[in-house]
Amino acid sequence: MLDPLSLALGAGLVGAGWALGRFGRRPARDTPIVARCGCGHDLSMHDPEKGVCHTEIRRKTIGGLHEWVACGCRRYTGPQPIEELFSRPILPPTD
């Protein structure tokens, strides 16, 4: 019922797949994944109650000079953290 050639071929395929998965090239990820808003800043730069962005951006003015102005983002539009969607904050108690 079981011929040795098929078993050897299957074992060879399993071994080759394991070797490629174990020793193959993997894409290098140097920077961690950060959830970003449409303005390009992450969630930590936005006020959790008001939603405004606290970051300053560099803007070019007339004459080629640069000035720092507040980011125009008024609400965080990026992905929401899982903790805010599925559980309420435990501390501080509001009762």
Explain what the structure shows.
With about 100 residues, the chain is an alpha+beta fold. It has a domain at about 35-90. About 25% of the residues lie in helices and about 10% in strands. The chain contains two helices and two strands; from the N terminus they run H-E-E-H. The protein has helices at about 5-25, 80-85, and strands at about 55-60, 65-70. The chain has a two-stranded antiparallel sheet. Strand 1 (about 55-60) and strand 2 (about 65-70) form a beta hairpin. The longest helix has 20 residues, at about 5-25.
Rg, Cα atoms, Å: 26 Å
Tally of individual helices: 2
Following the backbone from N to C, one meets helices and strands in this order, namely HEEH
Spatial gap, N to C terminus:
72 Å
Q: What class would the helix/strand composition place it in? A: alpha+beta
Strand order of the largest sheet: 1-2
The coarse overall form would be elongated
